[in-house]
Amino acid sequence: MTTTLDQLFVKVRAENRAALIAYIPAGFPTIEGCKKAIKALVAGGVDAIEIGFPYSDPVMDGPIIQEAAERSLSQGTSAADVFSALKCATEAGVAAVVMTYWNPIERYGVDEFAKSIADNGGSGVITPDLTIEESDRWIAATKNNGISPIYVVAPSTNDSRLSKVTQRCSGFIYAASLMGVTGTRTSISSGASDLVGRIRKVSDLPIAVGLGVSNQAQAREVAGYADGVIVGSAFIKCLLEAQTEEKGLQAITDLAKDLAKGVREGR
Amino acid sequence: MTTSQSTILGHFGQYGGRFVPEALIGALEELEAAHISALKDPIFQAELAQLHLTYTGRPSILTEAKRFAEYAGGARILLKREDLNHTGSHKINNVLGQALLTKRMGKKRIIAETGAGQHGVASATAAALMGLECVVYMGEEDTRRQSLNVARMKILGAEVVPVTTGSRTLKDAINEAMRDWVTNVETTHYLLGTVAGPHPFPTMVRDFHKIIGEEAKIQVQELVGRLPDAVLACVGGGSNAIGIFHDFIGDASVRLIGLEAGGDGVETGRHAATITGGTAGVLHGTRSYVLQDENGQTVESHSISAGLDYPGVGPEHAYLHDIGRAEYRAITDAQAMEAFSLLSKTEGIIPAIETAHALAGAIQVGKELGPDAVLLINLSGRGDKDVQTAAEYFGIPL
């Protein structure tokens, strides 16, 4: 089964560039504002969107995404809002996945969650705190519904573990650029290219790098060795700092344009 | 067989396991290996035993509470005095073990979360003793409730970081400690203070606390010539409870009763009684009972006791509950404070407010079982840290 996401990576490989993937939490800045932001990101040229399921205890996230999640949850964002944001992204013509901590999936129902992803045009789900040892039901559910289970690996992941994790993964492999939480960084750690090199030895899947990428120069650098560049906190920061909704939306379109240029100049 | 020895993946039935970012897997595997090798290493065991003898003050004594017993149906009430340990609670058992493991792994920095401050103080103490750097994450709300313990940690040389996210209590302190760990995992050991979190923590922390029940079993039999009818302990994350329960799990005649924090009453929704009022879910790296809403978001817990104010519980307790080996009841703030006052006035022992939940349970169970019953209660901590909260509660001017 081929998803929209799989087709995207075939396309960007043919164009000899990396894909630009943007992260935005559902319900942020508001339920409707999120949908406007998705359209603004697509207008700026992002290739794929990760819809975040805001969670009360985001241990992998730094202060920017924590604040966005808190704002979203204070408006009562539910699983239904996550799926409707996902649908908005897929209808805007880009590949879309959901990124969520595990408990909301378990609470919603493992099979039901995978089905709702597929029903709303989603290509897969990124689960940053689901280990392969706890994944049997989830792998079965994603397979049944034709979507990709996407795992995050880190610079500390050793080679034998990389091989085991990537074997259970499809769509792409999410390579965390550094040891730490989400957020903008002034430079991209050299650990990122090392990690991508180690993954290449054990898997043919596309590899997208996330954590810390916030500007065109960094996007260009990462696009030199990865198949996808993931940007989250930098977009959210634009929306948090904007004085008006309109200015915020313009800012993320502008940033997306910059980054889209970057991912085309990396090679 | 009802003993709940965990499997290689740290499962207790459907509970436990490992739900963490891949970045932490290496550290958890290293810790698991260090724990397993230490269990078999006579030198490690001798070093820990020597520390308990000369530093902790083990074995802790057993005190019969005869005047208190008059209010508990006349049952014999035996208190396992973990409050007399160095630093004033059972927490020292675990931190000394984990601090030795930290050195064994060649790490120089420990981080810890704390609610009431007891685990933070114990961690700061072990760090001072063994020359480790120590950072303690504590919810801002708890730094206010437990300001005395904040000062104690600082005097011991630890850095205390007030956590201002979420409900600003224990749950958020754990989130922040995990973020630190993900970032600094190569140099840092996360000295988790309870039997929750990803494998191997629930098993390892249990192993460091099971000495409580092992000692108590011998002491009770020496005193009364038989096993107790029931063993009672308060349950937040559940470390003191699993510590005193564990050696009795195979003794079918002994009831194991955990007392959760009922706050304003489970029916009000303002409580921390995770097993009594929660549902199965994943929080902080483990599957167990969780206080959560229909979207899987953690619900804020409420308790007068900072140490029990946690919306999760150790996975082994979830399992013992489901198989019917242990029972869990909720004790309200008011019931706990009544027991707090009663033990103070009848026995001259001021218990921690956490521990007062177990004492309130003893009053109930004693009345149910009557004067022939023998109850063993884990007096898990002393109440010095709670004097301000209690004074406010009882209207005593400070």
UniProtKB/TrEMBL annotation, chain A:
Keyword Lyase: yes
Pathway(s) of this molecule: Amino-acid biosynthesis; L-tryptophan biosynthesis; L-tryptophan from chorismate: step 5/5
Stored Gene3D superfamilies: Aldolase class I
Annotated organism of origin: freshwater metagenome
One of the record's GO molecular function terms: tryptophan synthase activity
Entry keyword set: Amino-acid biosynthesis, Aromatic amino acid biosynthesis, Lyase, Tryptophan biosynthesis
Reaction(s) this enzyme catalyzes, per UniProt: (1S,2R)-1-C-(indol-3-yl)glycerol 3-phosphate + L-serine = D-glyceraldehyde 3-phosphate + L-tryptophan + H2O
Alphabetized InterPro entries for the sequence: Aldolase_TIM (IPR013785), RibuloseP-bd_barrel (IPR011060), Trp_synthase_alpha_AS (IPR018204), Trp_synthase_suA (IPR002028)
EC number(s) per entry: 4.2.1.20
Keyword presence, Lyase: yes
GO cellular component assignments: cytosol
Subunit: Tetramer of two alpha and two beta chains.
Pfam families, A to Z: Trp_syntA
Protein name listed in UniProt: tryptophan synthase
UniProtKB/TrEMBL annotation, chain B:
Catalyzed chemical reaction(s): (1S,2R)-1-C-(indol-3-yl)glycerol 3-phosphate + L-serine = D-glyceraldehyde 3-phosphate + L-tryptophan + H2O
The organism of origin for this protein: freshwater metagenome
Molecular function in Gene Ontology: tryptophan synthase activity
Pathway assigned to this chain's UniProt record: Amino-acid biosynthesis; L-tryptophan biosynthesis; L-tryptophan from chorismate: step 5/5
SUPFAM superfamilies reported for this sequence: Tryptophan synthase beta subunit-like PLP-dependent enzymes
A Pfam family of this chain: PALP
Name listed for the protein in its UniProt record: tryptophan synthase
Keywords: Amino-acid biosynthesis, Aromatic amino acid biosynthesis, Lyase, Pyridoxal phosphate, Tryptophan biosynthesis
EC number: 4.2.1.20
